[in-house]
Amino acid sequence: MKKLIALFTVVLFIAFGISNTVFAQDSKQATASDKQKTENVTEVTEETTEEVAGAARVERAEDPDTAAQESLHFVLKNKFIEGGTVWMSPVLLCLILGLALVIERIFYLNFATINSGKFLEKIDDAIKTGGIEKAKELCRDTKGPIAGVFYQGLDRFDEGMESVEKAVVSYGGVQMSKLEVNLSWISLFLALGPMFGFLGTVVGMVFAFDDIEKAGDISPTIVAGGMKVALLTTVFGLITAIILQIFYNYILSKIDSIVSDMEDATITFMDILIKNK
Predict the structure, then answer these.
(1) Mean pLDDT value of segment 172-185
(2) Phi, psi of 156 (to 5 degrees)
(3) pLDDT in tens, 113-132
């Protein structure tokens, strides 16, 4: 009986081990099959993604608007090179120098602009509380042509109102000349830009006719190529003139505004001095 029980136990263990082994093999096979399927799906997905991306790139390359948009920032550089370095360089130099002077003037005029109404109130309060010396100190600590003109007037306050008025008028003219510094150079580069462009156009047309004469025939290729190079200098010259002209007019309007404000403030300043004398 004991032998039967032992034999039965051994058979059960063997059967249980075989079933576990078969189940494990089935599980491994199922896992391998699932992994293979997943890899196949991943490969298909990657291939589909690459095909879609390739189609999108082809579509983007075939789209003329997209191609033109992508190459827009290269147009000016390419056209500048096509126009020729000899005639394009002076035009570019005029633009750079003109813009440098324009930026300098804009900064100077912006720093020279103050609130004249509040400044006059401070001058009036300074004269009432601390006298002329305190008003002069306020003018020294304030930037701009208006403060400079007022300082010159206060410096001659003891000599009489006539001397104050002469000093204000004289130094006002000096300040106006300082506001207009470099305007002549800006106008020079403003005029030279399109002039160099037209000169390059004329010279390019002369070269184009020379090529026609050498070829002995009016070929559209020869004429179109020479004319394109010639006209590009005019285009860049006109662009230079347009840019500098806009800034030049802005600077002139800014100077007129400062001068008008300075004249009005000077009249009020004289009234303050007369009132506090």
Answers:
(1) 89
(2) -110, 25
(3) 888 889 999 998 888 888 88
Question: Burial of 269 by CB count in 10 Å (0-12 exposed, 13-18 middle, 19+ buried)?
Answer: buried
Single-letter amino acid, residue 174: V
The answer to whether residue 168 scores a pLDDT higher than 80 is: yes
Answer yes or no: are the C-beta atoms of 272 and 127 closer than 8 Å.
Answer: yes
Domain ranges of the chain: 1-70, 86-277
Alpha helices, H only, the chain? 2-62, 64-70, 72-83, 85-112, 116-140, 145-155, 161-179, 183-215, 220-275
Q: Which residues are CB-contacts of 218 (< 8 A; sequence separation ≥ 6)?
A: 212
The confidence band for 275, taking pLDDT boundaries of 50, 70 and 90, is confident
* pTM of the shown model: 0.67
As to burial, measured by CB atoms within 10 angstroms (0-12 exposed, 13-18 middle, 19+ buried), residue 102 is buried
Say how far apart CA 143 and CA 83 lie, in whole Å: 46
Report yes or no: 240 and 91 within 8 Å, Cβ to Cβ: yes
Residue 216 phi, psi (nearest 5) = 75, 15
Residue type at 216 in one-letter notation:
G
